[in-house]
Amino acid sequence: MSFKNGMNPDAKRFGRGTKFISVMDILNNQFICYDNIRASVEVVDGDIETYGVNYGDILFQRSSETLEDVGQANVYLDSKPAVFGGFVIRGKSKSNYYPMFFRYLLASPTARKKIIVKGAGAQHFNIGQDGLSKVCLNIPSIQEQEKIAKLFECIDTRIATQNKIIEKLQSLIKGLSQQLLSSENDWILYRLDDLAQIKSGYSGTQVSYQTPYKVSRIETISKHCIDIQRIGYVECIPESYRLNVGNILFSNINSIQYIGNTAYLDKDYGLYHGMNLLRIIPNTTIVRPRFLHLLLCTDWAINHFQTICNKAGTFIKYYKISQLIHTQSIAN
């Protein structure tokens, strides 16, 4: 496989023209096709020849904030030519292979370990063409590749079906929550900081290697639950920062659409409270932790947090999050 870094066009060229593959297209799709590429760019003479992406090409994430995410890969499965950006590396086949097999192979734990060790950096991690070219992988015959890929595709299809069912149930929960959690008839009005302690996380320097001390990051709660695969590490941390069952993590420093994102600690993850998230510790004599989390997930609460945040810095100060909130007595 031969490798090539992507293009870095002037900002004025974006918004029209040929589809432009970015890191988000690599991360957010089972595979990449022309219609699900988000961005577009106006190409000039030579761009398609130099930066063109064709059916079966592999696209790699070149740069990441975490070492674990560097070199994530996806495959392009479309006949329409596209181009790719500077934070992406294109891999072109030098021999015959089944494209979707490579998509699954490069996501396997064995391949990921071999790719990750080629990454380098301190605050930001990068992988280059030279590093990728030195990754060695065992592959079967083209016939076996096709069989394996089709098996995984069947499983992915089943997962997608189940996810649609889950989305419908989540929509039902959201609808019920809006109705059941918006009644104020016999509810008591509290300030949030009367219902819970609100604490900032540990601001010590994180390291790029694994240690016994796992800390939360903004990405840890990006899926509205604790994603133990997206954490950081520190050399040591006071035990007072350890997260306990019933704690709620709250995103107060983020892009505005993610302000107010929360995750509930449903079990002991052996995780500590890192920076850039607030930790809400409910007072269980007044409110049940899970109930408080549901309140914080309502549209009213999220819209309120996004309204009061500092749009320039995109964060919520402690005193602003200590808002008034209606809740029922725990006795009810």
Brief summary of the model shown:
The protein is α+β, with helices and mostly antiparallel strands and 332 residues long. 29% of the residues lie in helices and 21% in strands.
Structure overview:
It contains 10 helices and 20 strands. It starts with a strand and ends in a 5-residue tail after the last strand. It is α+β, with helices and mostly antiparallel strands. The protein is globular and about 70 Å long. The longest helix has 39 residues, at 142-180. Belongs to the type-I restriction system S methylase family. This is Restriction endonuclease subunit S.
CATH class of the largest domain: Alpha Beta
Share in β-strands: 15-25%
Write the CATH architecture name of the largest domain: Alpha-Beta Complex
Nearest-integer average pLDDT: 87
Give, in spatial order, the strands making up the sheet with the most strands: 1-9-5-7
Number of domains: 3
CATH homologous superfamily title of the largest domain = DNA methylase specificity domains
**What is the CATH fold-level name of the largest domain?**
Adenine-n6-DNA-methyltransferase TaqI, Chain A, domain 2
Q: In angstroms, what is the radius of gyration?
A: 23 Å
- Report the principal-axis shape: globular
Oligomer: single chain
Order of helices and strands: EEHEHEEEEEEHHEEHHEHEEEEEEEHHHE
Number of helices: 10
Distance between the termini: 64 Å
Largest sheet: 4 strands, antiparallel
User: Would you report the number of β strands?
Assistant: 20
The unreliable regions are: none
Secondary structure category: alpha+beta
Helical residue percent band? 25-40%
